Each structure stands twice: as structure tokens, then as C-alpha cells.
Amino acid sequence: MAEVRLVDENGEQVGVVDTASALQRAIDVGLDLVEVSPNAEPPVCKIIDHGKLKYQEQKKRNEARKKQKTIDVKEIKLRPNIDTHDYDVKMRNARRFIDDGDKVKVTLRFRGREMAHQDLGAQVLERVRTELDEIAKVEQMPKMEGRQMVMVISPR
């Protein structure tokens, strides 16, 4: 690496200089010579405080991590013979979860002889799907998993 394109501490283009003089110039102003673009021809070096550069990069990474939204899967448990008020409360919670950007796993649990009437459970899940149709889409259609029927809904 005989020559580098140099950018000084003020952000001004100095031009192509040999490495030794670029390093000497950085030492004279009390800063570091940092290679910012190694793949360029010739490589681009900048006279800056390396500690400050690392600090700013870390701050950018933290800011980006803070802004990203994690999608959670919230679960709502129902029964095949659920009463209307209980159903309305569960639907209100489901709407809130979807508005927050979370997925909703609707679990319908069968107990005892209810297993013989799985069609009632399918009707309840169909009712959930039609009610939430304008704000959510079905990601996983209702399917049986042991003694429970499961459906996953995600925001549109």
C-alpha cells in the first residue's frame, strides 16, 4: 500500500499521497489515520479520532436496534361452547394484539365429549376469522393438534 487517497480532519479532499506522509500528517494533528474504503483504488484514508468513530458507530447500531419492532405471538384460548360476552372480551383482546402488530394464535380446547362435536369448534374459529377479516389474514388455517384446534392470524 504505497499510496492512499487522503481526507483530512476537516473532511477536505487532500488527494493521493504516499502512506508515510499521510501517517505523519495524522500524527502532527494528534489524530489517527483510518482506512475507510480499502477496496477503492487507491484506498481511501481519513484523519479522524478512531475512538470517536467507534463510539458513533456503536450509537448508530443501538439506535437501529431500538427502532426495530419484534413480532410476538399472542395466544387466545377459547372453548367450543363459549358464551357471547366471554367471546366479545376475547375478540377485543385479539383486535388489540393485531393493532399492536402481533400475531394471534387462537387455540380452541376440547374436553371430554366435546371431541365428538369438532364441527362446533370449527364454527367458532370461522366466526373469529370473519370478524377479524378486515384487519387480519389467516396465516395458518384451523387444524387439530391433539385435543385442541389451532389457528394463527397475522396483521394485514
Describe what this molecule looks like in 3D.
The chain is α/β, with parallel strands linked by helices and 156 residues long. The chain is 38% helix and 34% strand. The chain is built from four helices and eight strands. The chain has helices at 19-29, 50-67, 84-99, 118-131, and strands spanning 3-7, 13-18, 32-37, 44-48, 73-78, 103-109, 136-145, 148-155. A four-stranded mixed beta sheet has the order 2-1-4-3. Strand 5 (73-78), helix 3 (84-99) and strand 6 form a beta-alpha-beta unit. It is rod-shaped, with a radius of gyration of 30 Å. The chain starts with a strand and ends with a strand.
Tag the structure with descriptive keywords.
38% helix, alpha/beta, rod-shaped, 8 strands, four-stranded mixed β-sheet, 156 residues, 4 helices
Topology readout:
Elements (H helix, E strand, L loop, with lengths): L2 E5 L5 E6 H11 L2 E6 L6 E5 L1 H18 L5 E6 L5 H16 L3 E7 L8 H14 L4 E10 L2 E8 L1
Parallel strand pairs: 1-4, 5-6
Antiparallel strand pairs: 1-2, 3-4, 6-8, 7-8
Measured as a percent range, the helix fraction is 25-40%
- CA-CA gap between termini: 54 Å
Largest sheet: 4 strands, mixed
* Gyration radius, in Å: 30 Å
Shape: rod-shaped
Rounded average pLDDT: 89
Q: Given the structure, what is the number of helices?
A: 4
Low-confidence stretches: none
Q: What percentage of the residues does DSSP assign to strands (E)?
A: 25-35%
Class from secondary-structure proportions: alpha/beta
Q: Quick one: how many beta strands? A: 8
Can you write the helix and strand succession as a string?
EEHEEHEHEHEE
Neighbour order of strands in the largest sheet: 2-1-4-3
